[in-house]
Amino acid sequence: QVQLAESGGGLVQAGGSLTLSCAASGRTLSRYDMGWLRQAPGKEREIVAAIRWSGDGTYHTDSVKGRFTISRDNAKKTVYLQMSSLKPEDTAVYYCAAKLKSLQILTTPWEYWGQGTQVTVSS
Questions:
Q1: Do residues 77 and 23 touch, judged by C-beta distance below 8 A?
Q2: Residue 66: what pLDDT?
Q3: CA 15, CA 79: separation in Å to the nearest integer?
Q4: Which residue in 35, 40, 76, 109 could disulfide with 92, CB within 3.0 to 4.6 Å?
Q5: Cα separation of 73 and 61, whole Å?
Q6: Coil, strand, or helix at residue 89?
Q7: What is the pLDDT along the chain (123 residues), one digit of tens a residue?
Q8: How many angstroms separate the CA atoms of 42 and 13, rounded?
Q9: Is 62 exposed, middle or buried (0-12, 13-18, 19+ CB in 10 A)?
Q10: In what order do the strands lie in the sheet with 18-26?
Q11: Strand 10-13 vs strand 117-122: parallel, antiparallel, or unpaired?
């Protein structure tokens, strides 16, 4: 088992920057693939970024590519989502998620979830 707790959300102006953190407790973090997903009002939850257990091989959805960067520090049991050039369309609840390391990080279901943190980007 792993427990996840997001932090760093808030209100930011368009064009600004924000970094989300996900603190994990429980099993060694290197056991898990990690991801960030978000859900905007009236929309389905979507994958934003994912990172393999080893830290190599990252994925960022096209809408955030070049603006968001996922990273992890297994020793600190923390996953980060660095966000820059934020747009109003980025407004959503952002969730940290984990699953036991797999060969298909984008298609296998996420097993563990944080409670989410609200990110609101004003015009």
A1: yes
A2: 97
A3: 23
A4: 40
A5: 21
A6: helix
A7: 899 999 999 999 999 999 999 999 988 888 899 999 999 999 999 999 999 988 789 999 999 999 999 999 988 999 999 999 999 999 999 999 999 987 888 889 999 999 999 999 999
A8: 22
A9: exposed
A10: 2-7, 18-26, 78-83, 68-73
A11: parallel
Amino acid at 65: K
Asked if residue 36 lies in contact with residue 62, where contact means CB atoms within 8 angstroms, the answer is no
Comparing CA positions, the residue from 45, 33, 6, 49 lying closest to residue 98 is: 33
- Nearest-CA neighbor of 3 among 104, 98, 100? 98
Output the six-digit token pair for 38. 């978000």
At residue 27, the pLDDT reads 80
Closest CA to 110 of 42, 14, 39: 39
